[in-house]
Amino acid sequence: MRIYAICVYVFLYTPIAIIALFSFSAGRSASQFEGFSVKWYGRALDNPFVMDALGNSIFVAFVSATLASILGTLAAVGLQGIRGPSRAVFDAMIYIAVMIPGIVIGIATLIALVTVFDVLNPWLAGIWPDDRQPPALSMGMGSLIAAHTMFTLALVVIIVRARLASLEGALNEASADLYATPFGTFRQITLPLIAPAILAGFLLSFTFSFDDFIIAFFVAGSETTLPIYIFSSIRRGITPEVNAIGTMVMLASLVLLVIAQLILRRGDKRKR
Amino acid sequence: MSQRARNWLLVAPAGAWLLVMLVLPLSVVFVFSFGERAPSGGYVPAFTFEQYLNLPARFAAFKNTLILAPLGTFAALLIAYPLAYQLAVRTSEKWKTMLLVLVIVPFWTSILIRSYAWIFILGGRGIPALLEIVGIEDMRLINTPFAVLVGIVYGYLPLMVFPIYVSLDRLDKRLLEASSDLGAHPLTTFFKVTLPMSISGIATGCMLVFILLMGEFLIPALLGGGKVFFVGNALVDLFLQSRNWAYGSAVAMMLIIIMLVTVTLYMRLISRLNIQRDDASIM
Fold first, then answer.
1. B105 in contact with A at a CB cutoff of 8 Å?
2. Is the pLDDT of residue B283 over 70?
3. Distance separating alpha carbons of residues A59 and B232, to the nearest angstrom
4. In this predicted complex, what is the ipTM?
5. Could you tell me the residue range of the domain that residue A142 belongs to?
6. What's the pTM?
7. Which residue of A has its CA nearest to B253?
8. Using the beta-carbon criterion (under 8 Å), do B119 and A238 form an inter-chain contact?
9. B36 assigned to some structural domain
10. Interface contact flag, B114 A108, Cβ < 8 Å
């Protein structure tokens, strides 16, 4: 049994180890190790296309994770006091958001937004002052942020709601008995207690958005994110440079994940 | 402002966002699936079932998905269960969490990067080269259904291990002792106690993996080499290459319908299994 478990761990980590190993190869071939070198890391960091894609990915992940954390937390708090059919509709939307495959979200967002933009653009041009260039809405960073925010918002609602459900109502009552306003209670009691969940939600959202390929593939228009760059590089043929980028991306995700775990863990301890 | 109004105000932005970015797009897919393709690509309003009647043209994609997704789910279950059992039942508390985290960590790193690693391993200079040393020649692994299956199991194993681990961890270990004290064979204990008690974890794991596999694009695209393609690959082709939105929408609708039906049937089956177990325990 123990040997079996070790085999599974080997299975899980060999591919990751191989990418990391080949990223240090000095040769041009991506699948043969020809001496140790970090030159591909330098090459990747000097490549303007890579840095551009990285910048886009970080920007989209940061903005959508921030929006999702704010909107998701507000919704989770508000939902506590809402029952009945409207609650059921909201829950159904959250459920659909996490159930529907990413690829369907991608194509649906693409055709819906392109159709809406086709209607809006002539209308905007019509009402725009004559002496200025009317704005042309198109697929790009904005649509990508909107799509990622939709999905990660659902994640944040689920995480924060679980945290809120585990809090004791007595704390809120005590606070109210001591003449705190509802907002005061929220700011001084509830918010500090759910802060770890919000932060964990933020980091998970960031990781999701940063790693997402399929939604971005449809929705990003002519913009390139890092996963899109990596995918098209693989299509052209794998180079050690791609391995170096992959290793750095995995390392970054790992660091974020560890931070998220530590925060959630610390929150748990404080609660006890 | 009343408490009620305040709650609504808090939920409204998220609700509006979900309406515009989720409900509206999905409705558009539904409407477009009854439309027609414009000559230059895109969509022309119409009400026709033509797109749905044309679905058999993409039969191969549906067939591959409906064979490899359940097969991949089952293979992942077979590999995940013993590991989850080992972690939950036979590992000391000290190591448990760390070993579990080690299983989950890969899932949170880019599936794109993890999958393409298999291009090296299964490609000409990987396992086939090793096999040649042993004397097995001309073994082709990459761009086969097998390669896609390996990629699937590799990619989604963590998602299968986690829920099974949780259900086995909750299981009262004294039940296992009681069973063996009463003279039950370890296999009998496993099939009569352990397995039924972990059925909810198995169900959750299978559902999660199956749902994600139904919409898979990357793994067949990277490891199937255009020969083994899923519905997801057909969708990419229809929307990004041939720009046939109406037909693509019908394919997407069909995918959602198949998912809903299988998931519903599956839930029914699981709840029936649970009810039967409750009956048995009363007796």
1. yes
2. no
3. 27
4. 0.89
5. 50-236+243-271
6. 0.89
7. A104
8. yes
9. no
10. no
CA dist B176 and B182 (Å) reads 10
For A186, counting Cβ atoms within 10 Å of its Cβ (0-12 exposed, 13-18 middle, 19+ buried), the class is middle
CB A106 within 8 A of CB A218: yes
User: Under a CB-based contact definition with an 8 Å cutoff, are residues B80 and B155 in contact?
Assistant: no
Q: What is the token pair recorded at A255?
A: 């660091």
Residue B111: give the domain boundaries.
Answer: 51-282
Q: Is residue B9 part of a domain?
A: no
Tokens 């001084």 -> residue = A188
Residue A36, domain member (yes or no) = no
What's the token pair of residue A128? 């725009």
Interface with chain A: mutation pick from B1, B8, B43, B120, highest number of A CBs within 10 Å:
B120
- Could you tell me which residues are beta bridge partners of residue B44? B36
CATH number where A209 lies? 1.10.3720.10
- Residue A236 in tokens: 């052209």
Any A CB within 8 A of B119 CB = yes
What's the pLDDT tens digit per position in B131-182? 888 877 777 888 899 999 999 999 999 999 999 999 998 888 888 888 888 8
- A with B: how many residue pairs have Cβ under 8 Å apart? 219
Q: What is the CATH number of the domain that holds B76?
A: 1.10.3720.10
